[in-house]
């Protein structure tokens, strides 16, 4: 999965414009952050290899139990199917859709959350005058999202209210419309801040760049 396949140059520019628009009515600073994948591809591959080896060994055992067949002799029949299954499982595990199925949802959510927290620090979302930074984080392979608000935001907006936006964003990613879903989420963040009186000061400045941050990992 390549980010450029899902987000065209026009998409990225529109996300920047939507971010600027959402920030214009509030003191919040919204940082869109898009990562291609968080979990290493080899993790899914090795899980696929283990599952493939076990499955192939089981099938070979059932064939032997059913007909007493030992292809190529006992040692070969014990080892070759497992090796073949491991190889096929390793290759199939590298397919994105299969890889997601091989890794538990809790595992994906945990590591996406850790990566989002790291991005919050990397981009210095905490470094605004009134601590009003917001990170909108998308992990494309995992089809997961996280919204993190700084202290000034969380004092005004209870954390639980972000979950509805996260759920809608994840649904949009899963439906194959990540760019549109991200734009909608950014606008919804702006509306939520306005509703909770996170209003701009007269001398308010744009403290964090509006363009989406993009990275492979």
What does this structure look like?
The protein is of the alpha/beta class and 217 residues long. The chain has two domains: 3-39 and 104-215, Diaminopimelate Epimerase, Chain A, domain 1; 41-102, no CATH class. The protein contains nine helices and four strands. The protein has helices at residues 3-6, 9-23, 41-67, 74-93, 96-102, 105-122, 151-156, 162-174, 178-195, and strands at 29-35, 133-139, 144-149, 213-215. Strand 2 and strand 3 (144-149) form a beta hairpin. Helix 2 packs parallel to helix 9 (178-195), helix 3 (41-67) packs across helix 5 and helix 8 runs antiparallel to helix 9 (178-195). The relative contact order is 0.21.
Descriptors for this entry?
single chain, 217 residues, Diaminopimelate Epimerase, Chain A, domain 1
Helices and strands, with pairings:
Blueprint: H1 3-6, H2 9-23, E1 29-35, H3 41-67, H4 74-93, H5 96-102, H6 105-122, E2 133-139, E3 144-149, H7 151-156, H8 162-174, H9 178-195, E4 213-215
Parallel strand pairs: 1-2, 1-4
Antiparallel strand pairs: 2-3
Helix pairs in contact: 2-9, 3-4, 3-5, 8-9
| Second-tier CATH architecture of the largest domain | Roll
Low-confidence stretches: none
Figure out the total of helices: 9
**Over the alpha carbons, how many angstroms does the gyration radius reach?**
23 Å
Mean pLDDT: 88
- Encode the helix/strand succession as letters: HHEHHHHEEHHHE
Helix fraction, binned, reads 55-70%
- What fold name stands as the CATH topology of the largest domain? Diaminopimelate Epimerase, Chain A, domain 1
In terms of DSSP E residues, the strand content is 5-15%
Trace the largest sheet across and list its strands. 3-2-1-4
Helical/strand content category:
alpha/beta
| CA-based shape | elongated
Largest sheet: 4 strands, mixed
Number of structural domains: 2
State the end-to-end distance: 12 Å
Overall CATH class of the largest domain? Alpha Beta
């Amino acid at each position: 999965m390549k980010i450029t396949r899902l987000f065209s140059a026009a998409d990225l520019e529109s996300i920047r414009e939507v971010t600027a628009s959402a920030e214009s009515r509030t003191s919040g600073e919204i940082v869109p952050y898009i990562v291609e994948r968080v979990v290493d591809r080899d993790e899914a591959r090795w899980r696929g290899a283990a599952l493939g080896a076990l499955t192939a060994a089981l099938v070979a055992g059932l064939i032997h139990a059913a007909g007493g067949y030992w292809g190529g002799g006992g040692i070969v029949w014990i080892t070759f199917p497992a090796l073949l299954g491991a190889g096929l499982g390793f290759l199939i595990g590298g397919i994105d859709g299969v890889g997601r199925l091989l890794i538990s949802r809790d595992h994906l959510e945990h590591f996406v959350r850790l990566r989002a927290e790291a991005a919050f620090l990397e981009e210095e979302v905490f470094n605004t005058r009134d601590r009003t930074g917001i990170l909108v984080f998308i992990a494309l392979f995992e089809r997961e999202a996280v919204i993190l608000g700084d202290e000034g935001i969380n004092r005004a907006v209870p954390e639980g209210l972000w979950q509805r936006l996260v759920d809608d964003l994840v649904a949009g990613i899963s439906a194959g419309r990540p760019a549109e879903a991200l734009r909608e989420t950014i606008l919804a963040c702006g509306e939520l801040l306005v509703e909770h009186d996170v209003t701009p000061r007269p001398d308010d400045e744009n403290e964090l760049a509006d363009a989406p941050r993009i990275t492979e990992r």
